[in-house]
Prior knowledge:
Layout: E1 11-18, H1 28-39, E2 41-42, H2 44-53, H3 58-63, H4 67-78, H5 83-104, E3 137-138, E4 175-180, E5 183-190, E6 199-206, H6 218-223, H7 231-238, E7 239-240, E8 249-250, H8 253-273, E9 285-289, H9 308-319, E10 331-339, E11 345-355, E12 379-388, H10 390-393, E13 404-408, H11 410-417
Parallel strand pairs: 1-13, 2-3
Antiparallel strand pairs: 1-5, 4-5, 6-12, 7-8, 9-10, 10-11, 11-12
Helix pairs in contact: 1-4, 5-11, 7-8
Amino acid sequence: MTAPSAATEPSLTLSVVRLGGSQVGRPLEEIVAHVLADASCCTPAEAVARLKSNSPTTSDRRATSNTALRAKVEKSILRFRRDQDRWTSLTSLLLKSLAFYRSLDPGHGILLADNETDGNQHPLANKLDVTSGRLAIVDLPRTEHHRPFLPKRNKGGYRFPLSNKKETENCHAAMNVTHQYPWVCMAQQQLDPTATVTKLGVDVVVFSANLNEYSPTVDDFLKCFKSSCTPWEWERIHQYKPSKSCAPGDRSEGSKLQEFYLRWSMKEAYTKAMGLGMHINFDEFETSLSGIDFGADADVGEDTEEGIWSAIAREGRDLDKTPEVNLQRQFSAMGKVKKKKAGDWEYWEFIFVPLREETDGGGNVEANRVSARDSGYDACACICRGPLGQEEALGEDTRWIPARIERLTLVDLIRIHCQDTI
């Protein structure tokens, strides 16, 4: 493995995994035991030492396996009572491990053996050849708020401190993972070492209401979250304003649910980018978007319930005219965040990626395309990056780096780390 070049091409990738169905075909406990035993678990320092030693075979890895760490990782997955939470925990672990190996050299990817791809290069393929073995599962260090992070390399290469307590975050190779079953998503950005550091957060939401005898309607369900919204955000969730000449109108139940989840995802992604998670009350800050909540009025149709989703729909139609498939699944807007205890606005970029499972009839996933009346999208990911300076945020080109959307399966992630197939 060679040292990374001095200059790094900036990049942003959203890796998307949809769980469910029979994509693995074996009991969860058996899969977890197999993956952890075959791939073994290690710290970042141990992972780099193994790559340098060129001993990636299954027997070598098992002989040097960090058994204490493996027991810790297995417990962290199986501690959940629901199988859905266990599947998402395993998938998150493998995605974070993949992010670590990608951070070692921004120009490198993961190459699967040719005989496992029918002679065709796997979408993850690039230069990091692990066909003679597989990559050990890396358990990342965490901040004081328990957010996992990619550790910083020493200037001389890939040496890492052996103690997690001494590891510092690689802010130029940020990573963040989110999940709401059946979706698990990971955002990873790579910046040039000389570039201004920007924070990164991601959240995924599923457009469904948990209706029951205590919350029989969408309005009853949303009331549970009223205390987490500012009065202005609550009004935007329930009402729309098509144009300056029209009075606000009440949203339909479906529109209210979508608008709530999209605005909730902005708040979640922001707190995750800040590294605070649930350590901050959501009503202590307010988020808004350029062209939707402030700035030029959006040109919406008379029968369209204006809001974030209608903006995503318009962007999807515009991008349908371009040959770049990855751009057909995202909408970027500059946003403002204002905290109650601080008078100034902060500027952040928000990227929305609508999600649904589509096939072309042969089982292959097609690019997602949004239409204003399309209700087939059951989820949406939101990436948050910043903060930006005011001049940079209000410039004509508000989208820094288009996100590359990458579709993976749990089987893909297992095959990257395991010598034996499942």
